Amino acid sequence: MTEITRILCAIEQGDPHAAEQLLPLVYDELRKLAVRRLAQEKPGQTLQATALVHEAYLRLVGADDAQRWDGQGHFFSAAAEAMRRILVDQARRKRRPKHGGDGKRIDLNEALAVSNAPNDQVLALDEALEQLAREEPDKVELVKLHFFAGLSLKEAGAVLGISERTAKRYWAFARAWLYEAIHLGKDEG
What we know:
Blueprint: H1 3-12, H2 18-39, H3 49-61, H4 72-95, E1 105-107, E2 112-114, H5 117-135, H6 137-148, H7 153-160, H8 164-188
Antiparallel strand pairs: 1-2
């Protein structure tokens, strides 16, 4: 049993000091995941990697409901999901009129209107992922780890306990499925 797994078990059993012991052990890896994920976001992203890590960590171990962790792979998978949820929530928030979602940005240097399409894309991807999860949950887990957490296919496969070759097949399937789902959704809307 790794130190991380031991601490996750202690958190699960209600040890109030275990969460304090966990953060130093997982912080660097969570920060790497956050940096990779935020690098894929559009320029001008206001959320910083540190804030994303802290918010995800609080959602994972700061919740009142005790969560069950089946080892560090499960924990990092849940962290990737928490980061995805945070970014989706932020995209939804930015679409609201209160936060400028109904306005258009104007680049004064070029006098070109810029739409909020990237936020729409994040939301379309989230809807497609939820639909795919009902049909192929194992492939969605790979997408979360690879796309949202920024793990390589080999690393994501290791977390999921599958070979790199299987991870590549899952990724190819999921990419094609999501592309079709997102583009069909645009055509209908």
